[in-house]
Design brief:
Length: about 550
Amino acid sequence: MDKRRNKMATAKHGIEVLHDPALNKSTAFTEAEKQSLGIIGLVPDVAETEDTQLSRVLMQLGHKSTDLERYIYLVNLLDHNEILFYRTVMSDPVRFLPIVYDPTIGEACLKFGHIYRQTRGMYLSITRRGKVREILKNWPQKDVRFICVTDAGRILGLGDLGANGAGIPIGKLQLYTACAGVPPQYLLPMYLDAGTNNEQYLKDPLYLGMRKTRPSTEDLFSFVDEFVEAVQEVFPKCCIHFEDWTGVDAVHLLERYRDKYCVYNDDVQGTAGITLAGMINATKLKGTQLKDEKYLFLGAGSAAIGLANLLCTALVAQGLTLAQAQAQVYMFDVHGLLDSTRKDLVDFQQPYAHQHEPTKDFVAAIEGIKPTTIIGVSTIGGAFSQKVIEAISRVTERPVVLALSNPTEHAECTPEQAYTWSKGKAIYAAGVQFAPVHFNGQTLLPGQANNFYIFPAVGMAIFATQAKRVTDEMFIEAGQAVADQVPPELLKQGLLYPQQSNILEIEIQTAARVAKLVFDAGLARVPRPNDMVAFIRQHVYTPKYNSLEA
């Protein structure tokens, strides 16, 4: 990897070096590099260390008054000095991950066309049908290993954002590097522009997308077919990461390609993996197993279905039949409980529509079903009301409350509400980060069920093994690996997920376990190593300047 960058350096000279964010060192070029590269006079006549540069970045960030301003600053830094950007983010992940991704990314996407400064990634319009293969060849890197692609049909809990959703694949791929060390040169963010039904953006003069409403599903899928097949030819080692498509499209596209190509959907599988990790640790606290629990979802879209399907696979591994596993999972959507009399359900919801008295009252559903775990994927802030928490606290001794919707204002309830209304009985995690809660003389630690524990680690395993396919079992193993890395003393305080301050090491360990599974399944395209952790470490990107002397 370093040798490749050295070769790139010898091909560029003078101002070209400073305009390449992968090569630019800003104020850290040595005297020999300045002489060799012809940049004397083009940079300050100093040779600063990376630590000094980091201090300056932190000082400048300290002058910003909002996280959106910090986000814009960091994106600008990435556009000019890639190594310093990753050095900054990886120096303090607890501080910077919420800025470069959720929750700040939500605000950044809402304003994407207004804060846009420089192109990052690719923008592929459905009007380019028939020419996708040639367009992909315009990308300067010829060995792309991951494309994160969205049509922005459903961004976070914010809905159809059209071209403004391009910020999501950009941010997701930054987490591949910042959390799991996947080298950034192999990553390609992509917005597949099929229009938007968002009238606000269609009328916005600064909107950056196609000003048309969305096409039929058949028309969209035929274009995605062309895209997926073109990727196989142009980037044969590439894994396609689908992100933030509408729920029905997310599930159907995953099923369309998963057995033929190396693809996955983080909203479906990554969300499921990280939620499964929390459920595993909740059962440790309760002294039960997953198969002993009963689950009720608020929300029945792609995230809920993906989570339920993965959960059922894990339950089958614990000895249940698939039918028995599905019988322990219930779902509730905007039209009420999914039951066998409903005529409005799509195909992938049918396995969770059980014989039960119809109800549109979530509290009544809790009282009738008596779940031990409620999972919020509704995007409705405050949906887990006091009546809801009190109801589940009546039907089970230690209710597990997972309020997974994001950004923060969409969380179904706060940890303080869950602990207070359950009189301290609830085991809680959210999709966003909340501060510790002091309750009845205890300090309780609400965990964050954030996908960034899972998909970057799975990505690193795919990158290192050059996996041919991505399976649900890989996400189950990742969830188990993440759960296993929570120390017992923190688990006792209710923390269901590892502390984020050590995210890189957590993901290296997780990636090693997933990689073992890839080799065991015969899906790797490289020789099996003797030491799986050492194998993963060999592939980890370190944000450190390399010598650029010719």
